[in-house]
Write a structure and sequence with these properties.
Structural class: mainly alpha
Distance between the termini: 76 Å
Largest sheet: none
Low-confidence stretches: none
Shape: rod-shaped
Mean pLDDT: 86
Length: about 50
């Protein structure tokens, strides 16, 4: 049995933590983008009503 090809638990754990942190940040960014899209939509509607 060759254990050289398998990464050790110590090397896997920080990577998993980093991935989890990145996933959290991505989720937060997605929420921010959704909020920005809503704000932009509202501004667009307001501008249209001003123009018309």
């Amino acid at each position: 049995m060759s254990t050289e090809s398998k990464p050790s638990e110590e090397s896997i754990q920080p990577e998993n933590t980093m991935i989890t942190d990145l996933e959290k940040k991505i989720t937060e960014l997605e929420k921010r983008v959704e909020r920005l899209e809503k704000i932009i939509d509202e501004i667009y509607v307001l501008l249209r009503t001003l123009v018309l």
